[in-house]
Amino acid sequence: MKTSSVLVVALLATTAAFAAEKTLPVPNPGFEEKLAGWNATNDNAMSAAIPEAARSGKLGLRVTDASDTLGSSLAAKRFPATPGRTYEVRFQGRIVKGEGIAVYLRFYDAKGAFLNRPELKNQINVPVRRGDTEWKAFTKQGVAPAGAVEVEVWVHSFTKNVVTADFDDFVLLEHGA
Q1: pLDDT tens-digit readout, 132-175
Q2: Three-class SS of residue 161?
């Protein structure tokens, strides 16, 4: 095969991959409107949009979990999910102090039950670790399991940990759309 033919095939494959990727519009992905569009139920008042947490724009998310018995809980809007499709979360994050926080992809069934649970050992998360003190790009993919009808991005500090962390610029993608 000639070099030009190989390049054309590679270009077509790349174009098809990009065409199969769909951005899901996470409301307020950079927290410029404080926590609007995010659900802070059971957050224990640990999440706040503040200037010191901004990587871009004027505000960013700071999670301050000073409790070793409670955790934070901040979820973006849910989107329809299709079993077997791959979903990907991208964001910027850093640790200010401590450790024990992650961003999750959570899938729900038609009754609103979580399909990714610790007891099933199928949680999909990307932790921001103690050494991640400078802004860093994070990404995590997960496949929607059988029965999934919705997906969400969830920021959660672990119940037994004490941590302060910053987040900004969330993106949620659906592959194979």
Answers
A1: 999 999 999 999 999 999 999 999 999 999 999 999 999 999 99
A2: coil
Q: Is 109 exposed, middle or buried (0-12, 13-18, 19+ CB in 10 A)?
A: middle
Burial bucket for residue 160 (CB in 10 Å: 0-12, 13-18, 19+): exposed
Helix (H) or strand (E) holding 4: helix 3-19
Whether residue 22 contacts residue 177, with contact meaning beta carbons closer than 8 Å, is answered with: yes
For the chain, report the end-to-end CA distance as a whole number of angstroms. Answer: 31
- Residue 74 located in a structural domain: yes
Local structure of residue 176 (DSSP, 8 states) = -
Inside any domain, residue 134: yes
d(CA 140, CA 151): 13
CATH number at residue 157: 2.60.120.260
pTM of this prediction exceeds 0.85: yes
